Amino acid sequence: MTRQIVILSYLEKLTEFTSGKAVSDLKLNFEKLTDSEELSNEEYALLLISLGRTLKFESLEIVAQELAIQSQISNDIINEAKQIPAIMGMLNTYYKFRFFVEKNDENAAKEYGIPSLRMNSLAKPLMPKETFELISIAVSILNSCEKCVIAHEKALMDLKVSRTKIHDVMRIAAVAKGLNVL
Predict the structure, then answer these.
(1) Catalytic one among 26, 39, 47, 145?
(2) Count of CB atoms situated within 10 Å of the CB of 14
(3) Is the Cβ–Cβ distance between 152 and 137 less than 8 Å?
(4) Residue ranges of the alpha helices (H) in 105-144?
């Protein structure tokens, strides 16, 4: 089954008892973004798994896992996608703090020093580095960490990822957040 068919079926079930202009807009936007040619089936499924976990949007995470299994993604990589929100949540929280205090105090960076937080999963992910960075930037935007969004966008630029692809990821994250409120 293609991801479009799976997502269309999912959206029908999700919005079965909800209607209105906002619901229609969210549904239409998500359907449109399902057709993104920028993201592979693997990237799309792993992104949705992490977004579902970040947003505590269980039904999105479940349908994304179905897509991942259909795409024959290994359990280890699926589990990594489930764990990215945890490590990014820790880092996003810490770096929001650093951004806030360093913005107004030129001595803060020096006085607080290095984070001393383990981040090995960032350096050597099981999934392709590009996929990991795309998921990380999406989770960082949902967690409102400006410093992390900037860092992950730079990492994606260094990997020669197009801004069109990054834009699709950001729009998927935004629509998923909206759908989660339904």
Answers:
(1) 145
(2) 21
(3) yes
(4) 108-112, 120-123, 129-142
Q: Is residue 71 annotated as part of the catalytic site, yes or no?
A: no
Query: Which tens digit of pLDDT belongs to each residue from 125-178?
Result: 999 999 999 999 999 999 999 999 999 999 999 999 999 999 999 999 999 999
The question of whether 26 is a catalytic residue gets the answer: no
For residue 182, the model assigns a pLDDT of 87
pTM of the model: 0.95
Cα 32 to the center of its chain, rounded Å? 18
Residue pLDDT, tens place only, 18-59: 999 999 999 999 999 999 999 999 999 999 999 999 999 999
pLDDT value for 116: 92
- All domains of the chain in start order, with CATH: 3-180 (1.20.1290.10)
Tokens at residue 168, please? 């699709």
Q: Which amino acid is at 49?
A: I
105 token code pair: 């105090």
Burial class of residue 138 (count of CB atoms within 10 Å of its CB; 0-12, 13-18, 19+): buried
Contact 51, 173 (CB under 8 A): yes
**Helix, strand, coil fractions of the chain, as percent rounded to 5:** 75, 0, 25
For residues 94 and 117, the answer to whether their CB atoms sit within 8 Å is yes
